[in-house]
Structure formats: structure tokens, C-alpha cells
Amino acid sequence: MSVAEAGATIRPRRRGAWARLFASELGLVFGRRRNQIGLAVLAGLVVMLGVALKASSLRHPGERGGDLMSAVAGNGVYLGFAGLTIEIALFLPLAVSVLAGDAIAGEANLGTLRYLLAAPVGRLRLLGVKAASLAVGALTGAALVAVTGVLVGTALFGAGPLVTLSGSRISVADGLLRLLLATLYVAAGLAALGMIGLFISTLTEQPIAATVATAMASTVLWILDAVPQLDWLHPWLLVDRWPAFVDLLRDPVFPDRILTGLWVDAAYAAVFFCAAWLWFRSKDITS
Amino acid sequence: MSPDSPAISSTGLAKRFGRQQVVADLALDVPRGSCYGFIGPNGSGKTTTIRMLLGMVRPDAGTCALLGEPMPVAAAAVLPRVGALVEGPAFHPYLSGLANLLRVDAADATSDPATARSRVGAALDRVGLIAAANKRYRAYSLGMRQRLAIAAALLQPRDLLVLDEPTNGLDPQGTREVRHLVADLAAEGRTIFVSSHLLSEVEQLCDHVGVMREGRLVAQGRMDELGGLRARRFRLQTADTAAAHLVLKRLGVADAVEGVDGIVGSLGELEPSRIVAELVGDGVAVRSFAPVRPTLEEAFVELTGEGFDVSG
Amino acid sequence: MLLAGVLTVAGITGFLARGAVADPVLPPLTPSELLTKVATAKVDALSATFEQRSDLGLPALPTGSLPDGDAVQSALAMLTGDHTARVWLDGPDRAKVALVDGATETSVIRNGDQLWTWSSEKQRAGHATISPGEKPEPSATPVSPSEAVQRFLDAIGPSTDIATSGTGYVAGRAVYQLVLSPTDDASLVGQVRLSVDAETFVPLGLRVIADDGSDAVSVAATSVEYTRPDASIFAFTPPPGAEVTELTAPERPTGTPTAGQEKKPTVVGSGWTAVAVTTVAGTPDKATSTVLESLPEVSGSWGRGRLVSTTLLTVVITDDGRVGAGAVTPDRVYAALAKR
Fold it and tell me: Does C306 lie in the same domain as C220?
């Protein structure tokens, strides 16, 4: 039987198998209408913020406080930082929670997980690709907020040298470089949250439940971080140093909190990715 | 690894979900090149068995092997040679059938991205979905979805196809199409392991059969051997009833009785050809003579002592 | 998997590294030798980050009722919670201290004869020119450093146990620890521990440990480098749009808000257990009353009043306008108030 004989040849594993599945995963994530709408909401909030600040600056010309929001009125590039500031606590974590909740639980819920496993996708490869796509999702969200901020801010307020928190001035190029670093830093934190979500996503077959649990985890972390009586716990909380990206706006840049923050992000990401793997590697797929 | 090893084998396979023992002490033996019907009522543990074979569910006890390779250890090496349809189709509803198959193909680390489009095209063609390739999956009918799942199993040349209830939920037309497809695939020499709760389907398609009941394999073997568990019978149609009875009596057939459509009796150790030769030699005008195999349902009732629930 | 495991381990060890290293072995120094070295230490340049943690156990005050004065608010803010400051030094006349809490920055910059203050929150800069004679040079000290140290030790000796106690690491630098322990049990201060860089003899950390063993205040460097900071750090030009005020004195007055005419406080006792007693003239305004009324009421032979009891400080404000304060238990303050 010719077909059976042809089939009997064992095909080797191909290089780039990870990349191909990763590309497929990105296509799935970014091709999904719901996710596109989510990104539009993230960008829309920045536009709203810019318009609101413009309206306020027209009503109270010359009035200026020292926070990031007020700084936008003086320089549009600041809207990128301001956008990150207002979205870092809720909207960006929520967006990551949606993606993370979907990662494994979404496939389990649709039943597509069993066809991926039968294909066969290695479970570690699947988890790794999901984790990588979450990191890309986190970066996309943060970058979209920053870029929208710069574009909308520049259109509404114009651009020019930025005044740092230290009172010095830096060029637009320097400012944009710092915004890029801030975006990467915020994305790293969000990606770590994504790993928590990925772990939760392996526990259930309900993507909504996994999303809600992840969003709640992030909210609980923020709340714990705001309780002064728990200050001994704060350095261990994932979100504690997330707002430290503003340290990039000092002159010279104050890297201490950001570097510690990156360590915390990495520790959370590693712990929860390992937990996800330990759970998922031997999980019975019954959906 | 040897080509002589069975396509599927298992020993002592067992799985418990909570308090329920879903599969117990299962010893499957599916020969290469066979079309193996895995029958049993709904809830008899067929799907769980298939999930264990494919490495999706970890057995509590026992071992299983696909194409001679131990599962789930060798999953990465052996599953690319196995096409599977597990518990109905499942795809991303907002992707087209084509995009869904490309995604499944991307999941297989051994598949060649350069040939992906042509292989997906061929698979869609094979199941008659070329025209609907770019339609979103959510717009597919149940039959189309089922065929898309079969196409996913056909993305690569496979040595073994595991088809779990391939006609479940299909209308008669869809059922006929899928059965034809499976029969064609079997004719090409692949080993096919098809689970079903429909006896007639297995009877039509398969040459081997395993019967599941409450998580246990109550019978397994060649279809004709399984039929032979009951005494083999024959049916003789003739005008010379009296002469025929004399000959049969002489040959030692004690239970020959005249029914509505002829004389029916047990063959025992007799060769059918010898009976015919004796009848003709005695000048009995034989209009027709046929050995009668009991239906699978009769065999099932005999094996399990109860009727087969065909409702599901 | 493996990579993730390695990262986890690396992350956790990185986190714990500071506490996990064995104490360094350093040549022993007496307290007097150590203090002399501190006094004579010559540091040309330095860039450091300090973190302050305070847990004074202040009673919760009704929010919004605090006086408006900037100074009071910022003093309270400094006393409570955690703060991070960046410090740069370059020679004797260039220095910058920047408080980098949250998304704000408050700094004082001295660059030669130019003094600037900056608050990003208020977008306000202050400026002053320091005349050269105003700040006495260290060499103008009438006594030698070692003599001064000896005088200091003599002065605190009767009330204090002074010891060099072990070594440690602060900001990755080996340090000597100098421990001052009040001998009087009534003191709320249990210990003051000073950490001194073993190479440069720059103090890198200070911990005030309360009588109950808790860390009341701790200031410690988290990073320190003895390299010359970039000159641009000391160059300050007020950004456009900022409000610039000319400071009348080289340093802004940071005293208490206008509290009327206060008598010079009388001091009862000495050393660690001294209690200052003073009288505040006039009736308290409404806001102050609200705050006062939220405090626990106490009374005794000395009269009646309100008690502020923190881990390090006890303050009693009597209804007739006297204030007794000291780093002692309330009993000692009552006793001091009873003396009149």
C-alpha cells in the first residue's frame, strides 16, 4: 500500500517550528476583533486624556501644576508618559488579563487545545509560544499608549524640549528615547502579570474566569501596595515599582527602582511560568 | 518501531475521574492495516481511551503504544504519523477553515511550512471543502465542521487515523459522505481506528472490532470471528423441502426448521460447499444457499447480555 | 523550563543578596578612633542614594485638619513613611540633594556661590547667592578633630554606652558599626547604630532603634560611588514656566509655623532623658483643636492634657498651654511638667 509506506517515513523536527507557531499565535491574537477593539480602547483613552487636558488648558491658560498631567500642556510628548500613568493601574493590566485568560483556557474552552495537542504541539512549546505572545501583547498595549500619546500630544500641544522632574531640559529625541525605555519597562511588568494570567489560564477551561481572576490578582496587588500597614510586604509586590518609570524623567535618570522592578518582574514571570508548566505538563485535557 | 508492531496496543489501561472508574484494565490490540471499530454505548469510556492513546489524558495505570512507540513518552515522534478526530470538531469560529488548518499545521513541529498551503488545499479537497475554504468556521454546517476535522487529520501522510464518532450528529447525507470517505481512506491501506456507538456503522466499515461496556473491553477481534461466537447458520431456499430435510438429516444437521424465507439451520463443523454438493447430488433443486452471519447487534447482546443503546 | 528556573533562583538570590553575605573582617577600631576617622575623613566626590524608613508609631491624625503651612506638612511628610534621596558631592562647594519620592522631585543644589532649591510638584525654584565668608571652612575649627571627638565622647559618656560593634555591609561597602546605647532605662531610644564606610569613613547608615526593639528611623545608603559626578548635575537653570523666588537667607526657614511668642523652653534632666517644657501662648485655632481633641486625654497631679506617644518621642500638651516633650516614657514628661 503506497500511501501507508509513504506515511511510514518519520519526518524530522523542523527548525523554526517555534517561530511558525509563534507567528500563527500572533495572527490569532491580533486578528481577533475583540482584541483589536481592546487596543482601540487603550488608544482612545489616551486621546480622551489629551482632549481633556487641552480643554482644561484652554479654560485655565497659564495655570500649571507640577505633575505629569500638567506637564502635558507644556509639551505634547509628555502625553505618552501621562497615558502610561493613567493606564498602568487598570486598563493595561486588564488588557493583559484578557489575553492571558484566553491563552490556554480559551483554547480549552473551544476544544482547539485537543487538536493542537494531537497535531502534535509539544506542551512546553505551546506554553512558551503563549507566554511569548503575551509578552508581545503587553508590549503592544504599552507601545500603543505611548505612541498615541506622543502623536495626539504633539498634535494638540506641539513638541519641544522636555522639562525633567529635576528641572533640567532634555531634547525631544532624548525624551522619546526615555519614553521608549519607559514603554519597555511597563511592558516587562505587564508581561510578568501575563505569566500570572497564563498560570491561572492553565487551571480552568473558562477564559472569562481566568481573565477575571488575573484582573483581580492585579487589583489586589495594587490594593495591598496602597495599605501603609503592609509596607514590609510592598517590595515583594509585583506592581510596587511599576510607576517607577517616571524615574526615567529625572536628570540624571534614577535607575535603582527600575532595575529592582525588573528583577521583581523577572522573578514573578519565572515563578508563574514554571508553575504554569508544572501544572500544564501533566494536566488531563478533557475539554 | 517495527512495522509488525500493532498500530495500537495497550495493557492494563485504566483511568478514574473522581469516583468514577471510566476505563479499566483495557488491553487493545489494533493490527496494522486494519479498520478497527471501537464500539460501545455513549459513556462507555471510548473517548477517554482515545484521549489516553493520544497522550491528552494520563492513565492511572497501564501502558499504551501507538505504531509501536510508547505513549505519551513518544508523542512528539509518533503523533505526526497519526491523524486524529477527537470528540467532535473544534476550531476557532472567527477563522476560516483554511486558516484553522494552517494553524493546526503550524502546531506540528515536523510539518514543512513550504508545503503547508498545498497540503491544506489537498486535505480540504479530499473532504470536499475547497469551495468553503475561506468561509469562517462559524458559518460551517455540522457536516462541514466534521469534514474539516477529518481534513485536519489528513494534513500529513498518516499511518494511523483515529476517528472518534466521525458521523456523530450528521444528517443521513452527511453520514453517507463521511462513511464513504472513511471507507476510501481504509482502502488506501491506512490503519483506521474508528469509534462509534452505531453498530451498523462499524459493521459496514470495519474488519476488526472492539466492544466497550462500562469502561471495559468485553470483546475484541476480527469481525467474522466475533460473529462466530455464535453458532454459524445457513439459509437454504428450495422447492424440494422434504428431500432437502432428508439430506440435512443425513449430514447431521439436527435443528433444521422451515421458516418464512427458507430452511434455516446450524452449520456446525460442516463446510457450506459440502452441503450444497450433497443437496445437488441428491437432485434437490437449490434455489439459494447462504451461510448467515449473525448481526453485530446479536453478537453484542450475546456478549453483554443486554441490548445496545442506540439512542445517543 | 531550565532557563526559567535559573532566572527564578537568580531573582530570589538577587533579592536576598544583601542579607546573605557574611560580615567582613576589618581591623578593630575603638569608638574614639572610628569617630576621629569620621571627623577627619576627606571625601572629594560622591554619588549616593539613601533610603529613609521611619516608623515612629505616630497616632493617626484626622486628615485635612492639619495646618496648611508647607513646612509643617513637609516636616510631617519627612517624619513618616519611606523616602529616597540622591546625593552628589564634588569638592567642598558643589553638592546636590534630591528627594525622589513618587513622581516628584525636591532638591537643593549648591554650585559654588549659587544655591538653588527646586520643587517639581510646585514648579517652583528658589535662588540665593552665598557670599564666601558665610560658610566657615572646616579648617577654621578651633580644635583638632580628634580633640573634638574626645570632647564629644566625654560629653555623652556618662549617659551612654559607646562601642564599636561588629561590621557589616551597606550599599555593598564594608562598614564599621558604632553603637550608642543610653544607660537610662527611661529613654525611649534603645540604640543608635551608625554604619561607617570602612575605607572612606563616610557614614553610610544610621538606625535609631526604639526601646521596644523596633526600627524607629533608619537611613541607609542603597548605593554609593566615590567618583566625581558629572558637572551638569550641579548646573541648574529654572525651566521655563517655573516660578522663581529669590531666597532671603541661604536656607529657607523650616521652623514651626507662627506659634506666637514662645518662651525659651526649660530643660528638665539631661542627656537622652532630657525633657523640654515650654509654654505656648494664645488659644489654639480650630484646626489645631480638632487635632488635639483626637488625641488621648491624660491627667495627673501636674494637671490635665493630651498625650502624643510615639515609639521615640512623648509629647504632652496641657490644657493650660504647656508642652512637655522628650524621648522618654510619659511618666518622665508628667514628672517634668509637675516640676513647673
Answer: no
Which chain A residues are closer than 8 Å to B91 by Cβ? 110, 112, 115
- Whether C160 is in a domain gets the answer yes
> What pLDDT digit, counting tens, does each position of A135-172 carry?
999 999 999 999 999 999 999 988 888 888 888 888 89
Task: State the Cα torsion B219-B221-B223-B225 to the nearest 10°.
Answer: -90
Contact B109 A7 (CB under 8 A): no
CATH code for position C46: 2.50.20.10
- Give Cα separations from A171 to A146, A162, A177, C74 (angstroms): 17, 6, 10, 32
Q: CB burial class (10 A; 0-12, 13-18, 19+) of residue A213?
A: buried
Going B236 to B240 to B242 to B243, the CA torsion angle's sign is: negative
Selecting from A228, A257, A266 the residue whose C-beta is nearest the C-beta of C7 gives A266
The type of residue at C193 is R
Please give the mean pLDDT across all residues of chain B: 84
Which tens digits make up the pLDDT trace of B135-169? 999 999 888 899 899 999 999 888 899 999 888 87
> Can you point out the beta strands (E) in chain A?
162-163, 169-170
Chain B nearest-CA distance from A124, in A, is 11
CB contact (8 A) between residue C15 and residue A263: yes
Contact A163, A153 (CB under 8 A): no
The answer to whether residue A114 neighbours chain C at the CB level (below 8 Å) is no
Reported as a single tens digit per residue, the pLDDT across C301-340 is 888 888 888 888 888 888 888 888 888 888 888 888 887 6
Asked if A252 and C240 come within 8 Å (Cβ–Cβ), the reply is: no
Same domain, C108 and C239: yes
Using CA atoms, how far apart are residues C97 and C85, in angstroms rounded to an integer?
7
Closest residue by Cα to residue A65 from C243, B61, B10: C243
Please tell me if residue A263 touches chain C, with a CB cutoff of 8 Å.
Answer: yes
Let me know whether C210 and C274 are in one domain: no
- pTM comes to 0.83
Indicate the burial class of C80 (C-beta count within 10 angstroms; 0-12, 13-18, 19 or more): middle
Residues on A contacting B at a C-beta cutoff of 8 Å? 1-4, 6-14, 16-17, 20-21, 23-24, 27-28, 31-33, 110-112, 114-122, 125-126, 282, 284-286
Gap from A18 CA to chain B (nearest CA, Å): 8
> What residues have CB less than 8 Å from C173, skipping those under 6 apart?
C197, C198, C199, C204, C221, C224
Q: Are the CB atoms for B86 and B165 separated by under 8 Å?
A: no
The pLDDT value given to residue B100: 94
Residue B274 makes CB contacts below 8 A (sequence gap 6+) with B251
- Residues of the domain holding C322: 266-339
DSSP, res B137 = G
Query: Is C70 within a domain?
Result: yes
Q: Which domains does chain B have, with CATH numbers?
A: 8-227 (3.40.50.300), 233-293 (3.30.70.100)
Residue C226 CA to chain centroid, in angstroms? 22
Q: What are the φ/ψ torsions at residue A185 (nearest 5 degrees)?
A: -65, -45
Q: Kindly determine whether residue A256 and residue C236, on different chains, have CB atoms separated by under 8 Å.
A: no
Closest-CA residue of C relative to A247 is C103
Closest residue on chain C to A73 (Cα): C241
- The yes-or-no reply on C/A contact (3 CB pairs or more, < 8 Å) is yes
Chain C interface mutation, best of A166, A174, A233, A271, highest count of C Cβ atoms under 10 Å: A166
Q: What is the pLDDT of residues B60-90, one digit of tens each?
A: 999 999 988 898 888 888 899 899 999 889 9
- Assess: ipTM above 0.90: no
